[in-house]
Amino acid sequence: MIDMTSVMCSIECPNCGRSAIEDNYYKSEEKYIYCYRCGYLYKRMTKDGVNFQVDKNKGYGHLSKKSGEGKAVFFNSQMTIDQLGEYTNEFYSENTSQEKSYLITYEDGVFRCLLGTPTDNFHLSFEEFKEKMIKKYGEDEFGLVPIEV
Ligand SMILES: [Zn+2]
Q: How far is the CA of 38 from the centre of ligand 1 (A)?
C-alpha cells in the first residue's frame, strides 16, 4: 500500500544554501528534495518498506521553462556546449514564455544566469527566504516554511 500523506515545505538546500523543497512521506519514510535554485535532487524511495534506495544529483543549475506544459530540467553535471545549444533553442522556442523562463548554471558555489530572469526569491539565502515567508504568511505552528518559487 502506498501512503500518500506527505508534508511539503521549504528547507535549506544542502548544496547551495538557498531554499529547496522537501516532500516528506513520514509514514513510508520516503523523502524527496528538489532545489529550483541550483538543481540539487535527492530521492529516498522504497518498494517494500524495508529496503531504501537513495538517488542524489549534485546540482549544477537548471532550466526553468514556462510554457503550456511547464518544465524544469535539473543538471547533474556541468553543462556541455551541446546542452547549452539545446537549452538555448528550447528557451527561444515559440511555446516558451521567455519572460518567465530562465537558464541557470551552478558551479563551484557560483550561480550564473545565462538566459531569462529568475524570480525574486531565487536570489535569497534560506534565512532571508524564511524571514520573508514569515512576514508574508505568519509563523507556522510547526515551524514549517512555506513553498514559493
Ligand atoms: Zn540548491
A: 4
